[in-house]
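Run log // design_07
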């Protein structure tokens, strides 16, 4: 890592309004994953949908998905029996895909609010607990099946779901696989292995098979890396779940910037939005706050989704 990375501070943009906060310890997520810690919400999975000019976020413990408009106004899109975590916009089907810890991989039509389970099992067995997902240009989806895995049980998985429904196991020995990002040419996948406190680099052969998996970067702290993003220069941005920080690496792994949160340490995920995808939105989950940073270049989403608006 670089010895003297530049440090930026994100600014608070908007927070979950009081009427949507639920001070309770009764959620399964609170009991099972937060050791009974009271949670009035726990935001995750931000995505920007250019077609609607809306930011969407999940609230894991209470099975809710919210939209936030450009003025910071919140609306409840749907509330259902689930634990939604990561989101991604499917630019082909025009639906939001959800990695739901309880239900599996789901699809949500943001207009009709219709929601359905797309896949919940692999070889007949239910998933451990999906966490995050990322789109490919051809409509395929990579997603992590984290469950409660960790160094004591390194059996977390990464799958690829093809448009026709075929499910392929990519990685099967992950200690808590979490956030994902694809290289711009889609020749490699970056996977946040939270309990390994590292980002794994998963390169693909020309036939799509995995070559030699290695560590792209390593971190420290009680938690570990969570959500990720990539910009149009190929820089990899990594949100750390307990340090209140986003680490920014060049494509070779060199750390050259840190972005700090001013309101809490649970920086769990991030995405691009705004005019030309030049705004970085960061979720500070426990406080229910969305932070933002004006970025020096456009963000990078799916190759097909990069429009004239997001060009330099």
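design_07 sequence
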């Amino acid at each position: 890592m670089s010895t003297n990375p530049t440090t930026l501070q994100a600014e608070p943009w908007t927070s979950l309004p009081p009427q949507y906060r639920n001070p309770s310890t009764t959620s399964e997520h609170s009991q099972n994953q937060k050791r009974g810690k009271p949670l009035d919400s726990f935001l995750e999975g931000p995505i920007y949908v250019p077609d609607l000019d809306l930011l969407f976020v999940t609230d894991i413990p209470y099975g809710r998905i919210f939209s936030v408009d450009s003025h910071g106004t919140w609306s409840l899109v749907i509330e259902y029996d689930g634990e939604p975590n990561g989101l991604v916009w499917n630019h082909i089907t025009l639906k939001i895909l959800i990695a739901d810890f309880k239900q599996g991989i789901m699809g949500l039509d943001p207009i009709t609010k219709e929601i359905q389970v797309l896949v919940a099992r692999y070889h007949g067995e239910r998933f451990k607990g999906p966490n995050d997902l990322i789109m490919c240009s051809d409509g395929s989806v990579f997603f992590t099946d984290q469950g409660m895995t960790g160094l004591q049980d390194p059996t977390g998985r990464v799958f690829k779901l093809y448009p026709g429904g075929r499910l392929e196991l990519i990685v099967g020995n992950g200690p808590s696989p979490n956030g994902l990002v694809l290289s711009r040419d889609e020749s490699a996948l970056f996977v946040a292995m939270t309990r390994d406190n590292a980002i794994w680099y998963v390169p693909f052969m020309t036939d799509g098979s995995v070559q030699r998996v290695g560590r792209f970067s390593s971190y420290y702290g009680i938690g570990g890396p969570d959500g990720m993003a990539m910009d149009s220069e190929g820089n990899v941005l990594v949100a750390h779940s307990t340090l209140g920080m986003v680490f920014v690496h060049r494509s070779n792994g060199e750390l050259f910037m840190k972005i700090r949160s001013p309101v809490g340490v649970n920086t769990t995920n991030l995405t691009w939005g705004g005019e030309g995808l030049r705004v970085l939105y960061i979720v500070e989950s426990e406080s229910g706050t969305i932070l933002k940073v004006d970025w020096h270049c456009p963000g990078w989403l799916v190759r097909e989704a990069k429009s004239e608006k997001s060009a330099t």
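Confidence is low (pLDDT under 50) at residues 305-312.
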